[in-house]
C-alpha cells in the first residue's frame, strides 16, 4: 500500500469511529436536556443515566479517533472545538426532544440500531473498537429495554399517549433510512474487516422494531428512502443549536477546566 | 405524573450470598418500570447485584398501637439470647 492509500485508509478509519462517537455524544447531549424537566424524578434519573452511558461511549470513541488521526486532538478538542459540518452523527440523533413520546421513539430507534452495530463491532478486526463495542453493548441492552418498554407503555396506553407515540414514529421514521445506507466510508471499512455490512443488519433491526410496534399497537410507516446525510456532515439546523449550547463554555473560555 | 403511579418498595441485595435489604420506595406505572426505576435510583453507584420490588399495598404491617402486646413480652426474657453458655477454650473463632 502506498502512502496516499494508507492516508486514505486512516482517514476513513477516523471518520468511521467519529460517526459512532458523535452519534452517542449528540444523543447523550439531547437526553441531558431533560434533566430537571422529566415527567417524574425517577425518569429524570433514568434519562440522565442513559445520557451518561452515551457520553461515556463518546469519550472512549473520541479519544480513539483522536489517536488514529494523530494530529494531537483529544476527546475535548473533538467534542467542543469542531463545527457542525465536522460532526458525523446520524441525523436522527440530533432531532429535538419534542414531547416525551418523541424522545422515547428517537431513543428506541437508535437503541435498536446501536444494538445491531455494537453486536457486530464487538467481533470486528479492530481490537480497540471491539473492546469499546463490547462495553457499550451491555449499556445498550439496558437502554433498549428502557426505551422499548416505554414505547409499549405509550402506544398501548391512553388514547392521548397512543396518538403522540404514533405521531413520533411517523415523524422520525424518515431518518431511519440513513442508518442502513452504506457509503464509501462504510464500504472501505467493511473491506478491512472492521465495519459490518450495514444493509445486512437491517433485517434483524426491522424484525425487532416490528415486534415492538406490534406489542405497542402502533403502525409502521411506509419506507421513506430519502437518505439524510448526518454521517457525512450534512445536518439539519437542529445540530447547530445543540452545539451552541454544548460548546458554549469552551468557546467562551478556551481551555477552561475544573 | 408520578403521583398517579402506585408506590413500590425496593429491596437490594448488595452482594451474592447476602440478603435483600429494604432501601426505600418509588413510584412506577408497572412492575417492569419499577425494576428500571429501582435500578436507576438505587443501584447507580454499584449498590447491588439483585433487586426486588413489591407493590407497597401488598406489605402487611404490624399496627403501632399493638406494639406493646406484640413486642413488650419479649423484653424480660433475656435468657432467649444465647449468651448464657460457657464457651469451651477449644472453640476458636466463635
Describe the protein's architecture and organization:
The complex is a heterodimer of chains A (258) and B (94). By secondary structure, chain A is mainly alpha-helical. Chain A has 11 helices and no strands. Helix content of chain A is 67%, strand content 0%. In chain A, helix 1 packs across helix 8. With 94 residues, chain B is of the alpha+beta class. Chain B has a domain at 2-62: Roll (Ubiquitin-like (UB roll)). Helices cover 18% and strands 22% of the residues of chain B. In chain B, strands 2-1-3 form a 3-stranded antiparallel sheet, covered by helices on one side. The model of chain B has no long low-confidence stretch (mean pLDDT 90). Chain A binds chain B through residues 39-43, 45-46, 49, 142, 145-146, 149, 153, and chain B through 1-2, 5, 26-30, 32-33, 36-37, 39-41, 44.
Q: Which term fits the overall shape of chain A?
A: globular
- CATH architecture descriptor name of the domain at 2-62 in chain B: Roll
Assign the structural class of chain A, choosing from mainly alpha, mainly beta, alpha/beta, alpha+beta, or little secondary structure: mainly alpha
Number of domains of chain A: 1
How would you characterize the largest beta sheet of chain A? none
Task: Give the number of DSSP strands of chain A.
Answer: 0
